[in-house]
Specification:
This protein is an alpha+beta fold and 346 residues long. It has helices at 7-22, 35-48, 142-159, 178-189, 193-206, 236-253, 258-267, 271-282, 304-317; strands spanning 56-59, 63-64, 70-78, 88-93, 99-100, 122-124, 131-137, 163-169, 290-293, 296-299.
């Protein structure tokens, strides 16, 4: 039989109930979370992070946040080996009923200023053009060559002087002569932007031939050799010599200072190329081609239609009406098969 509560025990129950009703159930900036709210946060994060048994969560005091009605709390997670994570920020509402994560980004800067085009040779429109395309290029990259071939003159034909295009250097380590090509074209760019683009065009078009023996085609091949149909052997030494020769020839066409150009080619200063690569890496560029269209990153040799869509959107953001929607040309129909000739009658 249950015993009847004494007066003292009843008084304690009443006191406990009163404390429960008046206990802190709101979040106060500058103070630790109330135990009940801290427990709910702990249970929620433990489930969301799928923490194993023995892992612990530490919740810091509430601090001011940029979101009205919410405070910030710093949470650290410690695994069973005692390793503690970096603090993770969460938001908790003043009534203790909501936990959220909030990431703040500054978008006050013009996105097109994300990648500087200063000091680089440009094609297309003037510096005031509403759309700036900055491409990270590798002159030995076949995908860059495909994009380069399709991007010109298609973009300038469609947009005229509304788009300005520059290239920055990102020669990949797996391409043996890409760094040499980048240095050489920049030596030329210092004196002739026109010569720079002419040389970039030529190298992209003829990249597959650079490093090959130009006389190999004229040499008779041994029909018994397994390499009879193989492309001529390529060497890095030959590629470097050909790139230097092409640079000097283009410099001569543009009437550049030959001794100055020769000195630049001979020096092979890669410092500006390495700086360009650092900029690319900071922008999460890890392959070529990579384009930044008013700051919007486009990776790979994507279809020209997609690039047009991104440019059109960039124009709209600058209150410039884009051209009519692009319609891809229709491939010509294959020729009709000739009708079979009637069989001769006997």
């Amino acid at each position: 039989m249950d015993s009847v509560p004494t007066f003292r025990s009843i008084s304690l129950l009443i006191l406990a109930a009163a404390l429960g009703c008046h206990a802190q159930t709101t979040v106060v900036t500058g103070s630790p979370l109330p135990p009940s709210i801290a427990h709910r946060v702990d249970v929620l994060l433990r489930q969301k992070a799928s923490l194993p048994p023995g892992a612990t969560i530490s919740i810091g005091p509430a601090t001011p946040s940029d979101v009205p009605g919410f405070s910030t709390i710093q949470v650290t997670f410690t695994n069973i080996e005692g390793q503690t994570s970096k603090p993770v920020s969460f938001l908790v509402s003043a009534d203790g009923k909501t936990v959220a994560q909030f990431t703040k980004y500054d978008i006050s800067a013009d996105p097109r200023a994300l990648v500087s085009a200063d000091g680089r040779p440009a094609r297309g429109g003037p510096a005031t053009a509403p759309v700036l395309i900055v491409g990270f290029d590798d002159l030995e990259c076949p995908y860059c060559a495909r994009l380069h071939e399709s991007i010109f003159p298609a973009i300038t034909h469609r947009y005229g002087d509304k788009v300005r295009i520059v290239y920055k250097d990102f020669p990949l380590d797996q391409h043996p002569w890409a760094m040499r090509a980048a240095v050489d074209v920049n030596c030329l760019a210092a004196q002739s932007p026109t010569g720079y683009w002419n040389l970039v065009d030529y190298i992209h078009i003829h990249a597959s031939d650079i490093g090959a023996d130009p006389t190999a085609k004229d040499k008779p091949s041994d029909p018994k050799s397994e390499k009879a149909d193989a492309p001529p052997d390529k060497t890095l030494e030959r590629a470097n010599a050909q790139l230097d020769k092409l640079t000097r020839e283009q410099g001569n066409l543009q009437h550049t200072d030959a001794p100055k150009l020769d000195a630049c080619i001979a020096k092979q200063d890669t410092s500006s190329i390495e700086e360009s690569k650092k900029i690319a890496t900071a922008l999460s560029v890890d392959s070529t081609p990579s384009l930044f269209i008013n700051g919007d990153k486009v990776d790979g040799a994507v279809p020209i239609e997609f690039i047009f869509q991104v440019i059109d959107e960039a124009l709209r953001s600058e209150n410039v009406t884009p051209p009519p929607p692009y319609v891809a040309p229709v491939a010509p129909a294959p020729p009709a098969a000739a009708a079979p000739k009637p069989s001769p009658t006997k």
